[in-house]
Amino acid sequence: MEKKIVKGVKKGDILIYALSTCVWCAKTKKFLQDMGVEFSYIDVDLLEGEDKKKIDEELKKWNPRGSFPTVVIDNKKCIIGFKEDEIRQALIK
Q1: Distance from the CA of 57 to the CA of which of 3, 48, 69, 85 falls in 20 to 30 A?
Q2: Which residues neighbour 17 within 8 Å (Cβ) at sequence distance 6 or greater?
Q3: Domain limits of the chain?
């Protein structure tokens, strides 16, 4: 299982748990790209077997409902859903 990395300005360690077919996940990725921020993402629906099980468990630690997108910043802050203002605020350093 590999995270896909989108290059940009490093504003911390940003990981998006996403679905490949999710409109809100796509909007979140595009928003970060438009901001020029580096981030990585995992399309959870494309995983299988042990990789999927491991990522599902990881995701539920941050978001017990397991909804998408789930954005984790610096392994400290979690933003669930496409929340432009909240994401922007979290990335101001």
Answers
A1: 85
A2: 41, 42, 44, 55, 58, 59, 62, 63, 68, 69, 70, 71, 72
A3: 4-91
Which is nearest to 31 in space by CA: 74, 77, 75, 81? 81
Check if CATH label 2.170.30.10 holds for domain 4-91.
Answer: no
DSSP 1-23: ---EEE-SB--S-EEEEE-TT-H
The single-letter code of the amino acid at 83 is K
User: pLDDT band at 1, cuts 50/70/90?
Assistant: low
| Bond before 64 cis per omega within 30 degrees | no
| 23-66 confidence digits (pLDDT tens) | 999 999 999 999 999 999 999 999 999 999 999 999 999 999 99
Q: In what order do the strands lie in the sheet with 4-6?
A: 4-6, 39-43, 14-18, 70-73, 77-80
Beta bridge partners of 5: 40
